[in-house]
Amino acid sequence: MPIENIPEIYLEESKEPKDIFVYDFKMTNDVVKSKVNLSMNMFSFLQVGKKQVHFADTSIAVNKEQSLLLKKGNWLWTELLDMEAIYYCKLFFFSEKKLRDFLKKYTNNSKPYQEEIPYFVIENDAYIASFISSLSSTTFTNQSFSDALLVLKFEEIMLYLLNKYGSKFEYYLHSLISKEVSPFKKIVESNVHSNLKLEEIAFLCNMSLSTFKRHFTTEYHTAPGKWLKDKRLQKAKELLEGGDLKASDIYLDIGYNNLSNFSVAFKNKFGISPTDISN
C-alpha cells in the first residue's frame, strides 16, 4: 500500500505548502486504512460520509456531527461513503509556526503536563457549521488578501474552541508543539543572552562560521547576526526597565565591547537611548 503524503499530494507540483490553507476533498470510492504521512496539523471537517483514524495504540471514528483536529504524524485512516455514494470533507491545515504564534498571542504560553493524544474530537454546533460553510479552497486562492483572511479564519476557529472547551483544548494545543530541540538550537538558544560572538557560538556547534550561518538561516529563517542582536537588545531593554541597572552595567554582558556602540544600536532599534529608560 503506497504512502500518501498529505497535504503535499493536494498541491500543484510547483507550489510549496503554505502555513495555513484549505482543501476541499471529495471522493466516490471507499478507502480502507490508507497509509498517511500527515506533515501538518489538520482540522478535518467532515460534511458527508464517515471517517476512522487509526493511531499507534487507539483509533477514533467520527461522522458529520463531529470534527477532528489531528496532530501531524503517520496515521492510517478509513474513509467511507454515505448512502448517496459520496464522501466530502473540508481540510484546514496549519503549520506549527502559526500554532506557536497563536499560543503566544492568546494564551499564557505555559506548558502544562498533558498526555500526548494525537487527536481532539470537536462536537459540531451552529457556530462551527457556519464556520465550515465559510471555508472553501476557491475562496482563499490567488486573491489579494487570501493569506490574511486565512489567518483570521484560523484564529477565529481556535478562539471559538478555546472558549468552548477551555483549558482542555488549550492543553491539547500545547501538546501539538514539537518537544524535540536539535543540539544546534540548544547551543544557540542557551547563548542568546551571553556575550559570545558568532564565531564563538559556531565553534561550540563544531562548525565553521560559514557553515553555522547557513545552518542558522535554515533553522530560523533569518540571518544569525540580526537575530542575536535583536534578542540581546530586547533583553537589555527588559533589564533597564527593571530600574536596578544602567547601560554601563550591562553592555558587556549583551555582547558589546563599548558603551557607545551599545547605545547607538539600542537607539536605532527602540528610538530612545538606554539612559532615557534607566534615568
From TrEMBL:
<dbReference type="Pfam" id="PF12833">
    <property type="entry name" value="HTH_18"/>
</dbReference>
<keyword id="KW-0238">DNA-binding</keyword>
<keyword id="KW-0804">Transcription</keyword>
<dbReference type="GO" id="GO:0003700">
    <property type="term" value="F:DNA-binding transcription factor activity"/>
</dbReference>
<feature type="domain" description="HTH araC/xylS-type">
    <location>
        <begin position="182"/>
        <end position="279"/>
    </location>
</feature>
<dbReference type="InterPro" id="IPR054015">
    <property type="entry name" value="ExsA-like_N"/>
</dbReference>
<dbReference type="GO" id="GO:0043565">
    <property type="term" value="F:sequence-specific DNA binding"/>
</dbReference>
<dbReference type="Pfam" id="PF22200">
    <property type="entry name" value="ExsA_N"/>
</dbReference>
<dbReference type="InterPro" id="IPR009057">
    <property type="entry name" value="Homeodomain-like_sf"/>
</dbReference>
<protein>
    <submittedName>
        <fullName>AraC family transcriptional regulator</fullName>
    </submittedName>
</protein>
<dbReference type="InterPro" id="IPR018060">
    <property type="entry name" value="HTH_AraC"/>
</dbReference>
<keyword id="KW-0805">Transcription regulation</keyword>
